[in-house]
TrEMBL record:
SUPFAM superfamilies: Transmembrane di-heme cytochromes (SSF81342). GO terms for molecular function: electron transfer activity; heme binding; iron ion binding. NCBIfam families: CytB-hydogenase. Residues 12-220 form the Cytochrome b561 bacterial/Ni-hydrogenase domain. It is found in: Cell membrane. The keyword Zinc does not apply. This is Hydrogenase. GO terms for biological process: respiratory electron transport chain.
Length: 256
């Protein structure tokens, strides 16, 4: 007989988080396509005089505008990491606890190396992002910053806007435009590999855990085992009590 559990529908991903996710997804796709066209422009045979054609200029404009949208999107997400709910909080993206490190090891063993899950413990099933996914997003955000810096430095000399000009030093640091362009190009392949792995793991979790992993980024809701939800609630209460106790303790010490 199949083992059944008591699941509850939980609102995990707030609208701003879902908005950030889909803006990132569409922007990344556009940037990759236009980026490869810019890197190796195709020869287009047409009966129109070349001086009257501006298709490559439009490609570059789309690439730059999309990049600025993605930069603004990331800034917004950093803001929301401090104002959003517990699942959007910045603390979830840095595994600074033993539980977080243990969760990363567990996900690597089960999801990546497909080893048998012999533990079946509740703390290995995250309500929001598991720690490996969250930490990988943090690392990719750092790579994105490098991608932005190299991209802006490459257009700094031909741009009349002050913002790209702030990053001229990046190209100088890497020894010129050629190396900077290589770094920008290699990072594009890294993002493409990340997208493939990300989609695979989302579908893997959706199939194995059946918690609405894929649809949650549309609806915001996941299905969570009731006992895991109780454990999470008790953790939140404990943290709140500790914070309250620290505040009271500081207040008492000041009064003394």
């Amino acid at each position: 007989m199949a083992t059944t559990f008591n699941y509850k529908r939980v609102y995990v991903w707030e609208l701003p988080v879902r908005f950030f996710h889909w803006v990132t997804a569409f922007s990344t796709t556009i940037l990759i396509i236009t980026g490869f066209i810019i890197a190796d422009p195709p020869a287009i045979n047409a009966n129109v005089e070349a001086t009257n054609s501006f298709w490559f200029g439009y490609i570059r404009a789309i690439h730059f505008i999309t990049a600025y949208i993605l930069i603004a999107n990331l800034i917004f997400r950093v803001y929301w990491a401090f104002t959003g709910n517990q699942f959007a909080n910045w603390r979830n993206f840095i595994p600074y606890t033993k539980k977080g490190i243990h969760n990363i090891i567990h996900v690597l063993k089960v999801d990546i190396f497909l080893m048998k899950d012999t533990e079946h413990k509740l703390y290995n099933i995250s309500i929001g992002h598991n720690y490996l996914a969250a930490f990988s997003y943090f690392i990719m955000a750092l790579f994105f910053l490098l991608q932005v810096m190299t991209g802006l430095s490459l257009i700094a000399d031909t741009s009349s806007w002050w913002f790209p000009s702030m990053f001229k030093w990046v190209s100088t640091m890497f020894g010129g435009d050629i190396v900077t362009r290589y770094i920008h190009h290699i990072l594009t392949w890294l993002f493409m590999a990340f997208v493939v792995i990300h989609v695979y793991l989302v579908l893997f979790h959706d199939y194995v855990e059946a918690r609405g992993e894929a649809s949650s980024m549309i609806s915001g809701f996941k299905f969570v085992r009731a006992e895991r939800l109780k454990e999470s609630e008790s953790e939140i209460i404990d943290k709140a009590e500790k914070i309250t106790w620290k505040k009271k303790n500081k207040k008492t010490q000041k009064e003394k």
